[in-house]
Amino acid sequence: MEIKFTLLWFSLFTTFSFAKIITPRFPSSIINRPEQLSVSTNDQKGLYKSMFFTQTLDHFNYNPQSYDTFQQRYLINDTYWGGAKNNAPIFVYTGNEGEIEWFAQNTGFMFETAPSFRALLIFIEHRFYGQSMPFGGDKNIAYKNSSTLGYLSSTQALADYATLIIDLKKNLSATDSPVVVFGGSYGGMLAAWFRLKYPHVTIGALSSSSPILLFENISSPYAFNNIITQDFRSESENCYKVIKGSWQQIEDIANQPGGLEVLRKSFRICENYISASSLEGWLQTAYIYTAMTDYPTPSNFLNPMPAYPIRQMCKAIDDPTTGNDPFGKLYEAAVVYYNYTGEAGQCFDLADNSDPHGLGGWNWQACTEMIMPTDGNNEESIFPASTWNYSDRVSVCQQIFNIEPRPTWITTEFGFHDIKMALKRFGSNIIFFNGLRDPWSGGGVLKNLSKSIVAIVAKEGAHHVDLRFSTREDPEWLVDVRRREINIITKWLSEYYHSLAHHSH
Amino acid sequence: MEIKFTLLWFSLFTTFSFAKIITPRFPSSIINRPEQLSVSTNDQKGLYKSMFFTQTLDHFNYNPQSYDTFQQRYLINDTYWGGAKNNAPIFVYTGNEGEIEWFAQNTGFMFETAPSFRALLIFIEHRFYGQSMPFGGDKNIAYKNSSTLGYLSSTQALADYATLIIDLKKNLSATDSPVVVFGGSYGGMLAAWFRLKYPHVTIGALSSSSPILLFENISSPYAFNNIITQDFRSESENCYKVIKGSWQQIEDIANQPGGLEVLRKSFRICENYISASSLEGWLQTAYIYTAMTDYPTPSNFLNPMPAYPIRQMCKAIDDPTTGNDPFGKLYEAAVVYYNYTGEAGQCFDLADNSDPHGLGGWNWQACTEMIMPTDGNNEESIFPASTWNYSDRVSVCQQIFNIEPRPTWITTEFGFHDIKMALKRFGSNIIFFNGLRDPWSGGGVLKNLSKSIVAIVAKEGAHHVDLRFSTREDPEWLVDVRRREINIITKWLSEYYHSLAHHSH
């Protein structure tokens, strides 16, 4: 049995797969998608105002096109700010690969800590996402080909952030206000890199669930799926075994006459399209993203889900009252991810390519610099055994973008081979948070690198759970993680103010 | 009296002026230029071998042209290397704006310390200089216009160095060999920035005479010329006064019928061209570059010169035996710079545009990111009073390259506003050397920024004198400076080896 999902994990942190671009085999959404996730272009809940900054297209070259500009969106909330006169702090979220509003709405930690820090809140949208589109704001042009998409890179994004923050502080007459940067996932990588590359712009970074070691051979390409395997196994050995065995069962039945129709019925797949591999991709998406968002309280990040959703999936699979039909059990597990609110339509559309959070640019990033080996599966894996194969990536990227990845660039620019050696006596003030139930923690910094470049690890945590809005039901370990983060940030600020007081300009 | 030499100081560290491109008013060389300064394309003196590395044109973008490559030259000397097995160190010179051989030949410090450190020596040529020419190695294409010159930038150069060093170490199986970077002048800025941006590639930087604070309003635009004034004044008040008064005298005589011919005769200027301002530029060049290279021993960096050449200039001016002809005295001062060896031809050609060290690309850099305000002159200045005027720069750059400078980019990317605040708790292992007779020290780091980001200041020192080959006549303070630098580098290495021994990969 060979299941082709080598490309499945390309789309870091996103709800849909790279593979979709090649062929509509791996959709993740359903017809009549509930609207509660869609981000309106208006400011929501009074949390922030949208602003725009005229940004330079290319910071590192000086050819004529480099001087082009675009409107970069940022969100601002000054409700709690102590003001420039008091040198009150500025908290900046370094936006990741999607609509900035979506990230802001899932980063309650900044809103909740702003009042006591008297902080100004800024969320900056990443170039080529949301409304921050170069080339006249026209996504069709910006995404047309590699000549325009070429300007979508992490180094340009970091330089955008530096440029915007410096200008904003100048305009606010707040040049002495300390800036702390926050980010989760790819945004967390950007936050950590930003502190390392622009220490004159930010005094510290909270880098949450950033798989910053998941490049080249620094981390194992099996780590990601091993963690998912372990997540399910820790709930129930039977649950793990049922899922692990299901791939062959799906292949077997799909190869029988009328077998695909049986599968269609079992999983309520729409009439327009089905194949064994697209169905498998649909199930894998559910397991992967549920592992990422295995939060201790009900959440609505990727999809609306209950607390500890893996437990709910395994409950459905282990349920003795539902008989022996494995597909029925798998279906019930899948709907924990796809239809927990029961508002889904009549069927699930495997050909649906919708992208409600505007995450599509990640495919380009995954074909240029973000070469993160995640899709190895050993014999124990809950997914079929497979090896990470770089040449597969290359050929897909050639096919789609006519481009060759630069797999060693990220480590050339940002390091992290022998990170401890490099940072033991260099740099300061970074928190790396990781939740060990999050598959991305397989590429995270899990140990302190120095006195002030520290790791906070939560055994029960999932993907940047620390950054989420708190709830009454939050477990004690999560309250404790946030308390520790607040204490560290407090220390950075007090050291900064101490230096400022003893510093003559 | 108004003398237009606003553009004179554009060409940081170079022997000729930006102004030459607009109009041949400010040549610096003479007919029949002595050949001893010209760099042969062959390896000289067995000091090194030339090698080439296939380098990426654009590290920060992914458009089709970014994938172009070019051959980047580097010089290598492995005579003293202790080898990969011993993790013996690698000393890298981060090349500046000219032929790399010229810089190598003037960086004896690395050759002289290599044996005791058992170091491999590498000198990397900066893109767009010497033989490291993008666009097929053809300088005519590379320098054609802003579409090609656009790729000449400091950030691209730093990424070149990181890429080349990582690849070289891999090829030598020397990934654990520590790298120390060295540079003087603009190369010193690159060395310091390289340590700050690529701490995973280098363990420390010796940044010599790098005017890293000479951007925006961080340093005074009068600092540069104040130091030159002080250099001459410290030798003799009369010498300073004669030079200071000469500008008006030259103007006066130039405005008389036949006056220019008098000047031509006094200064042995060739028949082809003369004007008051070009003559003034010729004299200013002599004073400025003599101040920069006011070394305690005879040297041949910009031109062959005696020890303490400012003293020799002032001796000529103060000499009571040469009567009262101020032009005759000024001429004798000028030849200390232009013709110390007496090998000059019959006359000095004010229209000569020769560029023996290939420094011409600096004009582009001075029109894009290297906006360093140096040409303010207060009332006390040895040069006519003038103010730094950014808009003059803009209009010249528009005229020549049709380009707008980005005057805030360097501080956005590298910081150095409030440098002490930023680096007090960030970064490590940088030595900033400055000699206070060097006008560029007006933009240098003259105080320790932290325990391991330290300033070494030599009151009697000139432009990166510490990096030069030592001589028997070196004064004690210079021997001491080098001893301190060696001790600090020794400490970096021993800390590195200690960490390596206690580090598991």
UniProtKB/TrEMBL annotation, chains A, B:
Keyword Coiled coil: no
Any single biological process term in GO: proteolysis
Gene3D superfamilies, A to Z: alpha/beta hydrolase (3.40.50.1820), Serine carboxypeptidase S28, SKS domain (1.20.120.980)
Protein name as annotated: Lysosomal Pro-X carboxypeptidase
GO molecular function, one term: dipeptidyl-peptidase activity
Signal peptide region: 1-19
InterPro entries: AB_hydrolase_fold (IPR029058), Peptidase_S28 (IPR008758), Ser_carbopepase_S28_SKS (IPR042269)
Record carries keyword Cell wall biogenesis/degradation: no
Source organism: Camellia sinensis
Family assignment from sequence similarity: Belongs to the peptidase S28 family.
UniProt entry keywords in alphabetical sequence: Glycoprotein, Hydrolase, Protease, Signal
